[in-house]
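task queued by scheduler; priority normal; single chain, no ligands, no partner chains; default sampling; output format set to structure tokens
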Amino acid sequence: MPVHPDLPESLAIMIQAAHEAGERIMTYFRPGQTVSASAEVREKGHDNPLTKADLEADALLTERLLGAHPGYGWLSEETVDHPDRLAQERIFVVDPIDGTKEFIAGLPQFALSLALVERGRPVAACVHNPATRETFTAIAGMGCRLNDQPVQVSARSELTGAACLASRSETARGDWQPFLREWRIQTIGSIAYKLALIACGRFDMTFTLSPKNEWDFCAGDLLVREAGGRVTDKNGAMFRFNQADPMVRAVLATNGRLHEPLLTRLVSIPLAPDRYCLKR
């Protein structure tokens, strides 16, 4: 894919916006402790918390990103969706806080996830963890960077014993029990942050067989692929973003070498039920 000359400038705007929103979020974060009452924690759905920090970050990102690119579409977890985004050639796909439950609990396992999508493919991405001061970025065709230094996925080629990131909530439900003896598993909340950690080579792979939305992993999709890895659904197909229904049923991300072995390993493992839909 040829690099558009305007993408570095767009990414710079995304990075600045993520840092500003991250500073706002950190005023509510308390390491190792539950956020204070000022965060106004409430439930917007089953097992789906919302805080004042989510909304303030979303408002700031909307102002900064659409202020710079008023003709672009918008898809965010915390903004009412409008079908007019489907007609836009370019669209921002945003999660102001991916890992809100970890943010609330005082765990530094959350991130802002910002992606710029063009005709269904992410072309610029920023995943920023303000608690760890890590900013992961990518432009299609230009590689992946962590705090402006180039990074790559791991070189591991053996699936057995691979370093694998797992969801905290899925682990608590017992979804990862079948894999405990196969891989070195570590639990982390945010899927955006998990994908970023795969991209920089600290871990070899991650996957979820539970429903996710585009804003959860769109930016991470580009990070991993630009770092040399692969991101697909359970059938091995790449994702196209800005769909009418932004929900997908599974996400697999690896260093690339482990992707086909992982797809084979998961063939007999069923998708998790859509618990959110079942609770409605």
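post-processing summary
- Residues 275-280 have pLDDT under 50 and may be disordered.
- Helices lie at 7-26, 52-68, 100-105, 168-173, 191-199, 214-226, 259-266, 275-279.
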